[in-house]
Amino acid sequence: MPELSRGGAVSIVAHQDDDILFMNPDIDASLSAGEANTTIFVTAGDAGLGPAYWGGREEGAKAAYSVMTGVDTWVDEAIQLDINGRSIEVVSSHPEGLSDVRLYFLRLPDGGGSLTPDQEQQLARLEEGTLDTVTAVDGSVTYTRSDLVETLTALLDLHAPTQVRLQIADGDNAAGEHTDHVNVTEFAEEALAGYDADSFTVTQYVQYASKDMPANLSEAEADRALAIMEAYAEHDPGVWESDGTLSQVYLDWTGRQYVDRVTEVDPDTPWTLADPVIEAPDEPADPAEGGGGYEVAGPDGFLFNIGSTGAITPKDWFVPSQSDAWDQNSDYIYEVTRVFVADDGTRTEETLLFETVAEGQLAPVADDPADPDSIPPVPVEPEPGEPDPVDPTMPLGNVVYSLDGEDSFLFTIDANSGEIAPEAWFTPSLDDAWDHDEDHVYQVTRIATDENGTTVTEDLSFETTAEGLVSLTSDAPADPIFNPTPTEPQPDPDPDPAPDSGIDFFSLAGEDSQLFTIDRATGEVDTQDWFTPTRDDAWDRDEDHFYEITRVTHFETGEEAEEPLTFETLADDSFVQVPSEGGAALMALLSLPGDGDLPPDQIEAEMEVMDPIE
To answer: Which of 123, 127, 262, 387 is the most buried (most CB within 10 A)?
Structure first.
């Protein structure tokens, strides 16, 4: 193995400029004092733009450390680690003749940018358990969540730092933070729990939010930090304005350094992780065998994620509170159904009940025969015949009713009678489809659970029959087509029709289209009255603050033209359209906050606000 330094400091960050933007002048001062410094870059910072871009960012990181060390020549080598019984290789570089300064590049995929839905937010999905593995963008290593944490712990053990520098994952200063920053910090904090050292200091730095804080560096410190950043910037085309100047936000960040928290760890005060949100085993007691997968259902299932092992975790945006009930019937008891669907379609369900025991904390409802922690899994045996929506089919004994299905969040159900009604805030409209597939047919499943845990399910469909009124449809297809005048689209319509070119009307489609309205005559797009974009609360389907819709132009000839539109909520809560063509599109991809850690100011310069969205 190459010669590795021990002691000094280890910095663990998401992207190749996070350290020099948010942890300087501390890193620079430590290097000037001759202390060992190791930096671990967990993601490739690729933004989906390929090896030329992320490779350039790695060269930029080296250039920045060359300014700080005075050495321009670098040695690239690989470090072999034994992780969970297998050998993995991590790319590493150090200045020639200076092995106590070392950079590691794990090259895991960035969370956003020019990525397909199955590629984006991989670290976030790995953290929440909805993705089993993540592969480095160069194909070198595939990590499970455990592998990644163990890799970080192994690097800590190799270098034995007395100082550890991290980003932040929670607190007021982390609001609006890039998901990669948050998830990398969570992995690093967990890795510290396994670090074999008795005494060390953990310093965690403010990131994006620092630009809005008072400048606190001297002129000389700020100039030095900016010079280091400019060395990096020569290798990252996304940090420059169109006139060739560095974006203002980098001057803001390099003029500041703020520490969010410092934790002194010693034998009397060991490093501890924050308490989990759910204080209980969240995996099945008897994991299902054979092929299949898990789903989460139940009246409060929308608040939780479920992983491939059946592990249940709350959504990132769901913070249990004793003063604010998020559950459907507002009794602070969260009713969740863990469903295993076998390859042959057989469903096995397990009902779990959680209660809020402290701010931000859930625990299973106390084990009580009348209110069990969990009902043993049982196969679902639906009763034959047509369900009666008014007087639902009931199993024997005491029965509790709940709702499931893609549109269930729009309805309430009486747990005792099974009576279904729309939510108070849901007003059905013939002009505005609230349902998941926007066909004005609302599909829900009524679930009756008896005292033995046996369930009976009824699939119900409701249709908007008048303003403010939904009615049960009998013999309705599972996914009816709501189109009174179907047309046959012709191939290759003009994607950008000229005015007065025979346009019949406009419509909206896409995964986030339910949050928007469109003028059928003009094609003008606006947000729903009840939708207020904010950086603190992602309403979009994949919760990355990017709202993806498609404006569809319908021509009198029956042809259709589709125009993908993307909007983003910026750090200052402004809502802007992301360009989709030409150089503006490239700059938009390079300028997404954190997908390269590029400035919101630059994004605003490259985007056009789409009236009337502001």
So the answer is: 123
Give me the CATH number covering residue 425. Answer: 2.60.40.60
The CA distance from 489 to 507, in Å, is 14
Say how many domains are in the chain: 4
- 429 vs 432: CA distance, rounded Å: 5
Sign for the pseudo-dihedral over CA of 170, 174, 180, 185: negative
Beta-carbon count within 10 A of 360 CB: 17
Do 308 and 126 meet the contact criterion of CB atoms below 8 Å apart? no
End of a domain among 412, 447, 482?
482
C-beta of residue 96 within 8 angstroms of C-beta of residue 73: yes
| Residue 415 lies in domain | 397-482
Which residue, of 265, 291, 315, is where some domain finishes? 265
- For residues 222-234, average pLDDT: 97
pLDDT digits (tens, 9 = 90+) for 374-421: 334 444 443 343 333 334 444 445 677 888 887 888 888 887 778 888
Q: Are residues 443 and 522 in the same domain?
A: no
Check whether the bond before 25 is cis (ω within 30° of 0): yes
| Contact between residue 341 and residue 295 where contact means Cβ atoms under 8 Å apart | yes
Alpha carbons 428 and 31: distance in angstroms, whole number: 63
Do residues 291 and 251 both lie within one domain? no
Give CA separation, 250 vs 20, 478, 583, in Å: 11, 53, 21
Please give the backbone phi and psi of residue 157, each rounded to the nearest 5 degrees, phi first: -65, -35
Please tell me which residue, 300 or 128, carries the higher pLDDT value.
300
The SS3 of residue 81 is strand
Angle of CA points 327, 366, 396, to nearest 5°: 75
Asked if residue 2 is part of any domain, the answer here is no
Contact in structure between 544 and 123 (CB atoms under 8 Å): no
What is the pLDDT, as a whole number, of residue 467? 67
Answer yes or no: do 55 and 176 share one domain. Answer: yes
Minimal CA–CA distance to 179: which of 3, 303, 316? Answer: 316
Domain identity same for 343 and 362: yes
Question: Are residues 320 and 249 part of one domain?
Answer: no
Query: Given the structure tokens 């047309």, which residue do they identify?
Result: 487
Q: Is residue 146 within 8 Å of residue 194, measured between CB atoms? A: no
On whether both 123 and 232 belong to a single domain, the answer is yes
Question: What is the CATH number for 532?
Answer: 2.60.40
Question: Which three-class secondary structure state does DSSP give residue 389?
Answer: coil
Query: Of 162-166, 446-450, 547-551, which range is least confident?
Result: 446-450
DSSP state of 486: -
Residue 536 counted as domain residue: yes
Residue 164's DSSP bridge partners are 10, 202
CB 180 within 8 A of CB 41: no
- Note whether 55 and 202 are same-domain residues: yes
Residue with more model confidence, 613 or 510 = 510
pTM above 0.85, yes or no: no
Tell whether 488 is covered by a domain: no
Residues 310, 235: one domain? Answer: no
> Is residue 124 pLDDT above 90, yes or no?
no
pLDDT of 544 above 50: yes
